[in-house]
Amino acid sequence: MAQLRDLKDELDIVIPTIRNLDFLEMWRPFFQPYHLIIVQDGDPSNTIGVPEGFDYELYNRNDVNRILGPKASCISFKDSACRCFGFLVSKKKYIFTIDDDCFVAKEPSGKEINALEQHIRNLLTPSTPLFFNTLYDPFANGSDFVRGYPFSLREGLPTAISHGLWLNIPDYDALTQLVKPRERNTRYVDAVMTIPKGTLFPMCGMNLAFDRELIGPAMYFGLMGDGQPIGRYDDMWAGWCAKVICDHLLLGVKTGLPYIWHSKASNPFVNLKKEYKGIYWQEDIIPFFQSIALREECTSVHDCYIELANKVKERLGPIDPYFEKLGDAMVTWIEAWNELNPPPPAQTATVAHPNVAMKN
Amino acid sequence: MAQLRDLKDELDIVIPTIRNLDFLEMWRPFFQPYHLIIVQDGDPSNTIGVPEGFDYELYNRNDVNRILGPKASCISFKDSACRCFGFLVSKKKYIFTIDDDCFVAKEPSGKEINALEQHIRNLLTPSTPLFFNTLYDPFANGSDFVRGYPFSLREGLPTAISHGLWLNIPDYDALTQLVKPRERNTRYVDAVMTIPKGTLFPMCGMNLAFDRELIGPAMYFGLMGDGQPIGRYDDMWAGWCAKVICDHLLLGVKTGLPYIWHSKASNPFVNLKKEYKGIYWQEDIIPFFQSIALREECTSVHDCYIELANKVKERLGPIDPYFEKLGDAMVTWIEAWNELNPPPPAQTATVAHPNVAMKN
């Protein structure tokens, strides 16, 4: 397989945090060539220490308010949902986002895993959401499509999202944490797979990469934390919205490799309080997303997302006024996105058609 | 996790073959307690050697003709599709079927893999086709449902099919075999997963187990080989039909572990001839199966399969007269199934309602 690009000038690493970023020391060999966007949550008067030698920009709540003005209301406070502010201000094509309690994991052989390199491989190779390949990623080294895989589908579709996994502390909800306090994930599954079209999945924001140009505006992490009735559903919300839109626009979502080492479990008693309402609400939210059909006229992520916001207000609003507010925030998010990411000027006639240019 | 039953009296091993079954020697520690059904393909005057100590019944073409009479026309000749005759004559609840060029594989640790034990574990634990679990099988040891997985779906659904994989020679089509003659599968992926509802997959018959009571009548391997315009699509056909019916009846299909060691590639030049028409036809067959909606009135596998046979004739018939013949054979197969597997006598009023009985 051909060597893939390293995306040094095309990818930002987004890190939400409330503490010194000492965890970056372990990632230095892998992250140092990249630009970091640090979103400081909580008290803006705190100083976040960043190890020397990293190239970064840091935003605290005062910066969010200054940059977005009244639209800052769509960015959550005291919840890792604030990370999506980093997606908004990035100017790069690709995003990798990681939590500050995630460390470098090891393969069973003992080799340290370059998580970012695997995410880049996942994003730069196609996805296969229209038919299942039993030998997993057909674009991995030493793998291919199996007998019976339709040839017309082997070109695959562009990959929008790469969802990585976690060794040690699994991403469990508060209930499972409380019931199985000692469970650790020790199973290294050497696979990347495309989540089939039409299938929802629980997207975790801990170790996640995506193509900002393809799916960025759908990567809104919702209203969580301070002043909201719910927390810890930020990444889930983004995942459900993004997956429905990827399915509609024929974009791929992969999950599996790379693993990171998740060092410590969050407090399950605190988590239960945050998740409490979500446990009930998701029983209605999931059927809602499973039954959504976006109009054919929605041909961009922006269109799809606005349509989704309207449906959220209409169909989830009756469950709780929170969903009215969330639907409004989704619209505000798109307005903020458009403000900070104005569409590029229309192509002039002197620009060659890309299909022609590619023949060189 | 609780110790699962070994199903010694509830499972038959079905092996289609044209040669002496020396490969059973390697499987002796795992297979010897089970009953084998050997389906001899090709010249019935040949003698198939079976290593001593195995409990088996063997059927050759003369037996097939004698037992099924005119209905024998639905059983393929000179193609591994003949294996489904074994499913028909079995009286057990579970079937494991394996090819005679498949040997015991090893885990990366060097431990020999008891493929049958893993299939039984897959069949006796629920499936989760309605939502994707990113940590794979939530019923595996040391695993569970991740955060965001709806609680109402955690009971899972009954598992109908367990599809195992292959180390060494991957199950490639003739084209991929010819293009990549040296490719070997060395990737041991330590996972079992449910194939989501609504997603088709290429089912390989080499290393396959299923619950005969739940899905048996859909496990027809079609008309292949001698006198037919196509071969090597027998298991694919069964997989497409069975998956559509499992989705309709809310049954689960798992793929992944266990691996077997596939010892040798079949001749790709011969395979190309067999697969040639299938390469074109599957481009129509897949959309056909993807778009099928079985009527709500179809509440048994029999009902679903007859409905499917009618749709095959109606919608695939126009592609080639072969599909008319195949649709008829599907009906014949069900007639043969009913003849050899008469429905059990109706339950009497003295039998407690299962939900009540379960409360004891």
Write up this protein.
The structure is a homodimer of 360-residue chains. Chain A is globular. Chain A starts with 10 loop residues before the first strand and ends with a helix. Chain A contains eleven helices and nine strands. In chain A, β1, α1 and β2 form a beta-alpha-beta unit. In chain A, strands 1, 2, 3, 4, 5, 6, 7, 8 and 9 form a nine-stranded mixed sheet that branches. In chain A, α7 packs across α9 and α9 runs antiparallel to α10. Chain A is an alpha/beta fold.
Beta-strand share of residues of chain A: 15-25%
Instruction: Give me the oligomer status.
Output: homodimer
Low-confidence stretches of chain A: 349-360
Helix content of chain A: 25-40%
